[in-house]
Specification:
Number of helices: 27
Protein name: Bifunctional glycosyltransferase family 2 protein/CDP-glycerol:glycerophosphate glycerophosphotransferase
Strand content: 15-25%
Mean pLDDT: 88
Keywords: Cell membrane, Membrane, Teichoic acid biosynthesis, Transferase
Pfam families: Glycos_transf_2, Glyphos_transf
Family: Belongs to the CDP-glycerol glycerophosphotransferase family.
Main location: membrane
Structural class: alpha/beta
Radius of gyration: 29 Å
Number of strands: 21
Largest sheet: 8 strands, mixed
Distance between the termini: 82 Å
Length: 737
Amino acid sequence: MSLLLSIVLPVHGVERYLPRCLDSILGETPAAETRFEVIAVDDLSPDGSGAILDAYAARDSRLRVTHLTENQGLGGARAAALPQVRGEYVWFVDSDDWLPERTVGVILDELAQERRREVPADVLLTDFTHVYPDGGSEPNPWRHVLVGSPLVEGCTLAEHPALFQTVMSVWNKVFRRAFLEGLEVAFGRGYYEDISVTYPALLAAERLRYLDRPCYFYRRGRDGAITATASPKHADVFAQYDAIFAFIDRCDRPDGPGRPVPESLRTLVFDRTVRQALNVYDTPGLVPVSRRKDYFHRVALHFERHRPANYRFPGGVRGVQYRLAARGARIAYAELRRTGRLPRELKRGARAVAPAVKKGVRSGARFTAYNAFRRLPLDEHLAVYAAYWHRGYACSPAAIYEKAKELAPQIRGVWVVENRRQADSMPPGVPYVIVNTPAYLKAMATAKYFVNNVNFPRTMAKRQGTVHVQTQHGTPLKAMGMDLQGRPEAAEGMDFDRLQEAIDRWDFLVSSNPHTSEHFARAFPGRYEMLDTGYPRNDRLANTTPEEVRAMRARFGLRPGTTAVLYAPTHRGGKGGYVPLLDVAELARRLGPRFTLLVRTHYFHTGGPGDLTAGEDAAEIVDVSAHPVVEDLYLAADALVTDYSSMMFDYAVLDRPIVVFAPDWEEYQRERGVYFDLFAEPPGAVTVDVAGLARALRAGDPEPEARERFRAKFCVWDDGGAAERVVRRVFPVGPAR
């Protein structure tokens, strides 16, 4: 059987990342799988990468290694590999990235199907995941442009031009080799080398196809990445633009490599290249100061050389910026971005775009303000708060904020939120800043105190004299942090070096109980002070009153005499979205009408659990996934059903029944790793099927002794005073009353 796929792997200075990349390609496919090959090019790597490649090649004949005697860069290394390629398709993978489990087999099966089609795909586009240095990850941000589009079945670029909104890199695209060779294009030299191939390929393809499966983990923001490196080589992008438009011009000739490119697509290409060029110019620290004038002049030359004949500038602030760039008006462009106002000589005729200019200033200012703000003195009376990746006012940071207002009123607190929608949901009177606005950048650059239940962005560097408080957001049942280093399935996407960098910024780590302190000290090794205080977010539960409970039940429409059960399963990292291991409708039918089921999916999941109707004689089912304050749900519920969520530790503060529903316990503890045996030390009854769960709930309070033991171990510090203990240790307050 002929080879289906050749994976080309350029390698230079990636010794610490290379084994993971190779293992994800070769180690995830059996040696008997010979439908693919890997061609690795050691681009005169200055570290041990070449030796690593040779060692792997000695063990696996599917890997062939070429050692270059001169450094060629990514483009040159790929070009050196192409004459050796034997597969029908070729995939260019970057050696500091890696592939999810079983990806190569999935791609091979897809290509085998394409081979049998009358018109096989010229380019197979894959979904991907961004991975950040602090271990966080983000799904493909352009997926909404692809899912449900004609690309799923296959189409041309003209039939779905929105594809130009997505990433133009080469690594998420698998090319039919004969098609690629027929284009007569080449990777460029220097930075942005791949766009001189991807643009022509997308423009010329008779059939593009999108595979809606994450097939690539792309590292963002690592040291040495061009998107985070100051260099005059950022001007290399203009040579790639010239190559792209030269290809478009060749397509217009009768003997060209493809069909003539419609003027509409030429305009889209031009607009996208201008936007990219200006983004590079606007991003602080990329184009060296000594080269900025020349770079901006190159943008103006790009307009002069390649602007389509009937090109119309876009509207609003972007259109004004483009006009200034086309004229080479660098000083006016800088003034517009700095102040939101045009210089006096340019104001005539600009009144129509003034509102858009003002609106766009917030976005533009973020590229220049942060470094300037960092030169200001620290504001000793400013504290920045955030929770759950800037989702809003919640968790222990909210409890600490409230107590700090009382005990340290001289400290001004401001919250970070992601967008306007989340800002609108903030409690009245709580100050906030929106991510990437000038106010946000100034607060992040000058605040003395930082309180978060996750990590702040690594790009916001810790200044000397600042105080960072990490509260975390749950007592750990599952393994955390550095304890995941031996569990590749659970640690998919984590960068442990970046995690350690984040830990090194912490001055205080809040712990909920002795169990947490023990395991956090190992999972998050650092020089911080462990605050053995209890979780501030649980103060509300410890201090609640019967009146507040009645108010919460009324808020959710719970009738007197109704038993409210909160069902809250945890997130399964390797399973994707909401995992309905429990048939909620069947449980509702077994419980009957005197019960109400409040169903809350994990905040990582988009949308709720779907159709939850169960019939007239069943319990009412209410989807409460969108309710922002989980403590409200705790107070309203008479019992909690969960699996491995840290919610069980919080809910136990209320001393109400908890039932564990864990049909996949063996799988979960094997893959994720756990700190104790939940079946041996449960917070209440343990069930593995819907019948047993229904029996436990109908029994009312089936395991009070188990809950008592659980509370004695995990709720010992939850006395309603945790927030005060944190505030008195961290902030300047008077003596305790």
